[in-house]
Amino acid sequence: MTLHDILKGKGTHVHTIHPGATLQEAVEELIRHNVGSLVVCDRDERSAEQLVGIVTERDVLHVCAAGRGPLASIPVAEIMTRDLITCSPDDAAEQAMGVMTTHRVRHLPVLAKGRLVGLISIGDLLKAQHARLAMENEFMKSYIIGTERRAT
Fold it and tell me: What is the CATH number of the domain that holds 115?
């Protein structure tokens, strides 16, 4: 199963935020969309979106714990992760899961030819893996039952 297969099922919409937005605005967006991360995108003069980072719930919690001040006064650009780990729609789900585990990230932007085409979370991968294992389990049960019937 590839990430393209997973995105076909879950959809390709990605919630984004501008790097100049405040952390308060980011929190409001996270809550509004019930998501754990926002991809940070900037627009250049040709109005093409440029992926510049990602901000997560955990990033905001670190700011709160450090007591850096009101969220309304801190821009997203100040705390976002800039060195993004990304993947391709053609990557295998197992490969993406390995990347997430190795780098200890929960969200991977999916890029095709440099353009953002989706976002995969660890939950998306676990859901896909669970569905695949359940299907394999049913096939095995059917095979065993069929074999037992032919033997009797």
Answer: 3.10.580.10
Concatenating the DSSP letter of every residue in 12-79 gives: ----EE-TTSBHHHHHHHHHHHT-SEEEEEEE-TT--EEEEEEEEHHHHHHHHHHT-S-GGGSBHHHH
DSSP secondary structure of 71-140: GGGSBHHHHSB-S---B-TTSBHHHHHHHHHHHT-SEEEEEETTEEEEEEEHHHHHHHHHHHHHHHHHHH
Q: Is residue 49 pLDDT above 80, yes or no?
A: no
Which domain covers residue 50, as residue numbers? 3-151
Strands 107-112 and 115-121, how do they pair? antiparallel
Is the pLDDT score of 124 beyond 90? yes
Q: Which residue has the higher pLDDT, 34 or 48?
A: 34
Answer for the pair 64, 70: CB distance below 8 angstroms, yes or no. no
Query: What DSSP state is assigned to residue 2?
Result: B
- Using CA atoms, how far apart are residues 131 and 125, in angstroms rounded to an integer? 10
Rg (CA), the chain: 20
